[in-house]
Task: structure prediction
Amino acid sequence: MLLSALMPISEILAALVAERDRLNRAIDALQGPVRRRGRPPKNPSLAADMVAPRSTNHKRGMSAAARKAASQRMKAYWAKRRKASAKN
Result:
């Protein structure tokens, strides 16, 4: 692929896109199939069609009510532990 100053920009762009596509296919062939995480599907023929979703690094947060409930549970847990250790 020789790009000269006399080639129109559209031809240069088309050549670069074609080269990028060839490289992407070569990389995909070298990496092999994407492994799926988790429990395998019941129908093994569907497993080949499925691709693992990309993570979005989305963190699930706790609501204020859930935090308060967890706090109360842990306070009760540690109070029970302190009470049990004080008896011994």
Observations:
- The chain has a mean pLDDT of 82.
- Residues 9-33 form one domain.
